[in-house]
Amino acid sequence: MGAFVLLFKEHEDDTVVIYKYGPNEHTMGRIQLNKDTKLFSEIEPLPDSNHSNKFYFDRAAQRMARCFVKEGGIFPDKMTFES
């Protein structure tokens, strides 16, 4: 079974970037990356207990890290994690 995570950018400035993330547009949590400390934090967990928050959080963080490291710090408005 593959993994699919949607990410929608909510806010970005010089210090942080915040995305909504989840399996679909109706079930989303919020994740923040501090660009200075390079630390991810959960602002809001997924509201549906039928979905593993850790599973989606980890994949959202992995996709955001790729933007930060491999894509020169460019964070698009919408992106996905698919495997």
Short description:
By secondary structure, this protein is α+β, with helices and mostly antiparallel strands.
Structure description:
- By secondary structure, the chain is α+β, with helices and mostly antiparallel strands.
- The protein is 20% helix and 45% strand.
- It is built from 1 helix and 5 strands, in the order E-E-E-E-H-E.
- It has a 5-stranded antiparallel beta sheet with strand order 4-3-2-1-5, with helices on one face.
- The longest helix is centred in the C-terminal third of the chain and has 17 residues, at 53-69.
- It is globular, with a radius of gyration of 12 Å.
- The model has no long low-confidence stretch (mean pLDDT 93).
Strand order of the largest sheet: 4-3-2-1-5
Number of helices: 1
Mean pLDDT: 93
Please write the string of helix (H) and strand (E) elements. Answer: EEEEHE
Major β-sheet annotation = 5 strands, antiparallel
Computed Rg: 12 Å
Helix content: 10-25%
Distance between the termini: 9 Å
Strand content: 35-45%
Number of strands: 5
Q: Give the class from helix and strand content and strand pairing.
A: alpha+beta
What sort of overall outline do the alpha carbons produce when their principal axes are compared? Answer: globular
Return residue spans where pLDDT drops below 50 for at least 5 consecutive residues.
none
Task: Name the features.
83 residues, alpha+beta, five-stranded antiparallel β-sheet, 1 helix, 5 strands, 45% strand, globular
Task: Set out the fold topology.
Elements: E1 4-12, E2 16-24, E3 27-34, E4 39-44, H1 53-69, E5 78-82
Antiparallel strand pairs: 1-2, 1-5, 2-3, 3-4
